[in-house]
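Hypothesis: this fold can be encoded by more than one sequence.
Test: take the structure tokens below, design a sequence, compare later.
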């Protein structure tokens, strides 16, 4: 059987096309922390100015960030997360927790996030229907894209 012309249709791949580029999630981290101006974003992400400008433009065009002028002369803008951007914040928190567990064996975490209850956030993915924590062994994938199974493309 010949390999399919296109890879598996996948919302993960689609999301990574928007936020998977270097610095994109770091920009979102910063705007969620309240750092909304270009110079703050350059400093806190380490992104070169030209690359940062490109990432900001893509995130605004994708509806993940909103852009608002705060100075006319010279023209300057600040960036805020849209609803779509805010919906990515749990992804950032989960990614941070994973990095803390698996990439910092010394336990020297660079940041902690406090929940409104006063406790440090420990993000957990839960099932909306039953409220249980999601575990790999409890999941079953059901491909919905025509011509695809869990194993790959169906025969033509």
């Amino acid at each position: 059987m010949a390999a399919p012309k296109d890879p598996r249709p996948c919302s993960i791949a689609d999301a990574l096309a928007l936020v998977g580029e270097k610095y994109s999630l770091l920009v979102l981290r910063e705007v969620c922390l309240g750092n909304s101006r270009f110079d703050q974003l350059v400093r806190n992400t380490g992104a070169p100015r030209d690359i940062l400008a490109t990432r900001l433009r893509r995130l605004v065009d994708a509806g993940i960030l909103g852009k608002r002028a705060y100075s006319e002369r010279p023209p300057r803008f600040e960036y805020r997360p849209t609803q779509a951007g805010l919906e990515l914040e749990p992804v950032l928190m989960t990614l941070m927790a994973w990095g803390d567990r698996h990439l910092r064996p010394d336990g020297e975490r660079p940041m902690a996030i406090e929940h409104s209850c006063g406790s440090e956030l420990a993000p957990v993915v839960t099932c909306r229907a039953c409220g249980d924590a999601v575990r790999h062994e409890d999941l079953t994938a059901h491909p919905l894209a025509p011509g695809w199974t869990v194993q790959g493309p169906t025969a033509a």
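The mean pLDDT is 94. The longest helix spans residues 89-102.
Hypothesis status: open.
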